[in-house]
Amino acid sequence: MAAARVKPGVQVFLEKHLDLVEGKRVGLITNPTGVDGLLRSTIDLFLASPAIKLVALYGPEHGVRGDAQAGQYVAFYIDRKYGIPEYNLPVFSLYGQSMKPEPGMLKNIDEFMRSFDTKEKGKVPETAMVEGIDVMIFDIQDVGTRVYTYVATMAYAMQAAAENGIDFIVLDRPNPVNGVDMEGPILEYPEFSSFIGLFPIPERHGMTMGELAGLFNDKFLGQKAKLTVIPMEGWKREMWFDETGLPWIIPSPNMPTLDTASVYPGLVAIEGTNLSEGRGTTKPFELFGAPWIDGYDLAKTLNGLGLPGVRFREAWFTPSFSKFQGQLCGGCQV
């Protein structure tokens, strides 16, 4: 595999900044997008480095391994993928179980785990595998749109790290829909602040996760985190993701391609309506419609508006899950 034009933050960190974690116990917030340019996972790379003492994993929505659907609860478990006892890591969910890391998840993990309901499947604590952490590292690919839970997960984790005296490091990654264009309304804050939109930034915000972390730390967090952002090398603001040379890893189950991320800032609004936004199809957020819509008529009407830069194709689809599961829907593909 040829080397990518852009080096993500994880590669820069491993090459130049291991001094930041020397002698420290490391917690890692990540998911399947946490890989280097050769598709090696951040978890694997950390475990392989003698300079990094990785002691716990923390997962956003969809989980560390990406095996949970949108909104699905993820319980605590021990990750045993490597078959080596010293590599068995506690995995805490930051979605459902808790959206903000509780102090016990960071400082007194052993005590925190003992407080769990051990009769609940997947929550049995194993003392030998849980320790406190000194530094939290965040490595997740964003999609460039405010309405995406990973942004809030990062902000909540930063606040928790600040409150518990833990260093916070963001390994930066590209904004996949470029870092120049900003579009859409700014969130009305604090009236409509929520886990899918915490702070007043545009719908399409034009920032990387590292830049968002800096903005949140400077302007919005009640207590500032001891934040370090490891920048990428070779990234330019005007780049779209397919210009970086990096492999596209599905950041969430319904974000399969860069095309999805490109239309998502506009089409995600359909989630709040009685139309299907294409979940349960191979083209989520590109397809939209409902059982009572005629795709031909809708496409004709929308194309008649003459909107610049977009065409609507008549489409018919049957979602395998989510809205209108198993029902034929008429609509359009953007």
Radius of gyration: 21 Å
CATH topology of the largest domain: Rossmann fold
* Multimeric state: single chain
Number of helices: 8
Q: Which architecture of the largest domain does the CATH hierarchy give at level 2?
A: 3-Layer(aba) Sandwich
**So what's the CATH class of the largest domain?**
Alpha Beta
Distance between the termini: 33 Å
**Approximately what portion of the residues adopt beta-strand conformation?**
15-25%
Low-confidence stretches: 109-131
The class by helix and strand makeup works out as alpha/beta
- Give average pLDDT, whole number: 88
Number of spatially distinct domains: 2
Helix content: 10-25%
CATH superfamily of the largest domain: Uncharacterised protein PF07075, DUF1343
Give the spatial strand order of the biggest sheet: 3-4-2-1-5-6-9
In short:
This protein is of the alpha/beta class. It has helices at residues 9-16, 42-48, 103-106, 109-114, 149-163, 209-219, 258-267, 295-303, and strands at residues 25-30, 53-59, 77-79, 89-93, 135-139, 167-171, 183-186, 202-204, 227-230, 287-290, 313-317, 329-333.
